[in-house]
Design brief:
By secondary structure, this protein is mainly alpha-helical. The chain is built from 13 helices and no strands. The longest helix is centred in the last third of the chain and has 28 residues.
């Protein structure tokens, strides 16, 4: 039975669907050597990854303003990430494969890189940044559900069903709380949840393709194949017009996301998967929403009431039960 290694990759990362398919892959499949696995370096990588993923939702909001649309902010981020990845490909003297299988893999990755990212960027205009990270915690659940239907993976064991129900309950609570944020906030929350589904679809599709591509190559091709779509979206949404002025915070956020969110964060994620216990690596997915909430409240003056807290608790509890519920006696399969 083929299974998807459930990602802890955050859906606001361009590489999240790619990351879902590399757990346990050999180091050569990444394309960049990761040899230093000393405890201090691993701890530094862990903290750096939590920091990057925790600040990514706020950076997404800051990458668009009155002058810069969310389409321009996202497209510019992807362009920055593509340039860096293409430079890595050139430095490694590794040409980008254009075989039928490779193009199929790029297309599958593009579903997450374009569809899911565009969806969450649109939704981020209407909900607090911390909410993006909270809803992102549902990604392993939605991916597992899709994998059950497409790959035949067992997603309906008692622990996983309990985790899904808890996560859904948390999403319902968050949806109820979104009404106080404005008329479009519920749609923003739905968009963030839909982004999870698109990322999961991309991850499952990639799992079905026996592409055997280095992950850096896959990510380069995936972003590259979506750049024309971003240009078309920019033309349709903004009339292909560039902003006359760029606020330093907006430009800095775009560069930060292109360099750290799309490239460095993914490499750190893979490094941890290779050299750290899975149970410890999974802590990133629990710490990220909490840290994002704290950052949003303290830095961006975002509100966070008891209903948001309850929804967050249910979603995180659902994630824990989904991933680790097999260790709970009452939830074990009979």
């Amino acid at each position: 039975m083929r299974t998807v290694d459930h990602p802890i990759g955050h859906p606001t990362m361009a590489s999240a669907p790619v990351a879902a398919t590399v757990t346990g892959a050999p180091a050569a499949s990444v394309g960049i050597a990761t040899t230093d696995n000393s405890p201090p370096r691993l701890a530094s990588a862990f903290l750096a990854l939590v920091l990057i993923w925790s600040t990514t939702p706020l950076a997404i909001q800051w990458s668009a303003d009155a002058e810069v649309s969310f389409v321009v902010g996202l497209g510019a981020r992807m362009l920055v990430g593509f340039v860096i990845l293409a430079a890595v490909q050139l430095a490694l003297r590794r040409p980008l494969p254009i075989s039928g299988v490779a193009l199929h893999a790029y297309l599958a990755a593009g579903v997450g890189i374009y569809g899911a990212m565009l969806t969450v960027y649109w939704g981020a205009q209407f909900i607090p940044s911390g909410w993006i990270a909270i809803v992102g915690g549902l990604m392993p659940l939605s991916t597992g559900l899709l994998a059950a239907f497409v790959l035949g993976e067992d997603a309906f064991s008692p622990p996983r069903l309990a985790g899904m129900l808890l996560g859904l309950a948390g999403l319902v609570v968050m949806f109820g709380a979104s009404g106080g944020l404005g008329a479009l906030a519920p749609l923003g929350l739905i968009a963030a949840a839909a982004s999870n589904v698109l990322h999961g679809l991309s991850a499952v599709w990639l799992k079905r393709i026996d592409h055997r591509l280095p992950v850096v190559t896959l990510l380069t091709g995936g972003i590259g194949i979506t750049l024309p779509l971003y240009f078309l979206t920019w033309w349709l949404h903004d009339g292909a017009a560039l902003p006359e002025t760029w606020h330093w915070r907006t430009a800095g956020s775009i560069l930060y996301l292109g360099v750290f969110g799309s490239v460095i964060g993914f490499l750190l994620f893979y490094h941890l998967l290779r050299h750290m216990e899975a149970s410890r690596t999974a802590l990133v997915s629990l710490l990220t929403p909490l840290a994002s909430i704290i950052i949003g409240v303290t830095v961006n003056d975002e509100s966070f009431g008891w209903r948001e807290g309850l929804g967050t608790l249910l979603i995180l509890l659902g994630l824990v039960v989904y991933e680790r519920g097999h260790a709970i006696p009452g939830l074990r399969r009979a």
